[in-house]
TrEMBL record:
Stated family: Belongs to the choline/ethanolamine kinase family.
GO cellular component, as recorded: cytoplasm
Annotated keywords: Kinase, Transferase
Assigned EC number: 2.7.1.82
Lineage: Eukaryota, Viridiplantae, Streptophyta, Embryophyta, Tracheophyta
Gene: LOC110795001
Protein name: ethanolamine kinase
UniProt enzyme class: transferase
Family annotation (PANTHER family): CHOLINE/ETHANOALAMINE KINASE (PTHR22603), ETHANOLAMINE KINASE (PTHR22603:SF66)
Length: 377
């Protein structure tokens, strides 16, 4: 999405704000250079905040403090603390989109989802849009780590929150976007050319015919499962989960990859994230750990009453779509290797994800085919 598209998205959200008194979204045409070090970035962030919020426009720069909250492999989150004239201290979050991420993220879809998810109590409130990011309310909580997600108590909380998330209705087509997005990623990933000779040689070892065949075979299998389509987060890694331990409240944040998708994909993708960026798939949850999650997802009020047949069905569904998660993010990584200036070895990440797909495929397919055969009997 180019600059014009970002402006169009601002206009759409601003129009919605005017028609809904409960939602006031401000905007600015300014951008912040994400390649700058934090000290050099700070005056630009302050200028942005003054441009957006009129009540802060006359404050001295010394009234603002800017610090990094989190820097993933796509976005940069900044906490801005402002000491207002009346002595109050206010905190907001400035989210800077990673350079070229609009190549793989549908910003208009994200902004539409934020409005409805925020109203349902998910994430931070959207306060403003600007050239290459957004301003949101600050969430007073810590970001989870991959080991946190496998803690039984937290896993149960995540499962219950994800169930509520999946019940939110977002306007528009209810068609799953999985195969559409995967096809778009494949189209882009299969036509890359790298200036770096070593990268190009490594890229040329990839068989896109093999990848296309795997996508087709997996789609044929998952189509037989009849998995429900829900509005999914699609990127439920530890960095997108925050916990206020004093209040015992979990927050699901950052909806840039959100779309209608198969329920099993969202859960299977979450389980893949137990491995972290190091891709240690020995940390993928065991069947017992998955069943614990499923019980709290399927029946939050009486998890122990979930029938075994329902657990088995969701197990097969989740692990079949877990394979799709590997394929999607493997192709995504190739695009990022070309487009992203972030210092991360996306090319190696592609091979780690695709190799794990191949390692898991036979067992998952066998389990799914056996389940489908029993279901017909």
């Amino acid at each position: 999405m180019g600059a014009a598209s970002v402006s169009d998205s601002m206009a759409v959200v601003a129009g919605e704000a005017q028609s809904n008194g409960s939602l006031e979204v401000l905007s600015s045409s300014l951008s912040v250079d994400t390649s700058l070090a934090l000290p050099a970035m700070k005056p630009r962030v302050i200028e942005l905040c003054k441009d957006i919020f009129e009540k802060w426009s006359h404050l001295d720069d010394s009234c603002f403090s800017v610090e990094t909250v989190a820097g993933g492999i796509t976005n940069l989150l900044l906490k801005v603390m402002v000491k207002e004239e009346n002595g109050n201290e206010v905190s907001i979050t400035v989210r800077l989109y990673g350079p070229n991420t609009d190549y793989v993220v549908n910003r208009a879809r994200e902004l539409l989802a934020i409005r409805y998810l925020s109203a349902a109590g998910f994430g931070a409130k959207l306060l403003a849009l600007f050239g290459n990011g957004m301003v949101q309310s600050f969430i007073n909580a810590r970001t989870l780590t991959p080991p946190d997600m496998r803690e039984p108590k937290l896993a149960a909380v995540i499962a219950r929150e994800l169930r509520k998330f999946h019940e939110v209705e977002i306007p528009g087509s209810k068609e799953s976007q999985l195969w559409i997005d995967l096809s778009k990623f494949f189209e882009k990933a299969s036509k890359l050319k790298f200036d770096d000779k070593q990268k190009q040689e490594k890229y040329q070892t990839i068989s896109f015919e093999e990848l296309q065949s795997e996508v087709s075979e997996l789609k044929a299998l998952t189509d037989r499962l009849g998995a429900p389509v829900v509005f999914s987060h699609n990127d439920l890694l530890s960095g997108n989960l925050m916990l206020n331990e004093e209040e015992g409240k979990l927050y699901i944040i950052d909806f840039e990859y959100g779309s209608y998708n198969y329920r099993g994909f969202d859960i299977g993708n979450h389980f893949n994230e137990y491995a972290g960026y190091d891709c240690d798939y020995s940390l993928y949850p065991s069947k017992a750990e998955q069943y614990h999650f499923f019980r709290h997802y399927l029946c939050p009020v009486a998890p122990q009453e979930v029938p075994n047949c329902d657990l088995e069905a969701l197990y097969v569904e989740t692990n079949s779509f877990m394979l799709a998660s590997h394929l999607l993010w493997a192709l995504w990584a190739l695009i990022q290797e070309k487009m992203s200036p972030i210092d991360f070895d996306y090319l190696s990440y592609f091979f780690m994800r695709f190799n794990e797909y191949k390692r898991q495929k036979e067992g998952v397919f066998s389990s799914a085919i056996s389940f489908l055969s029993k279901s017909r009997d």
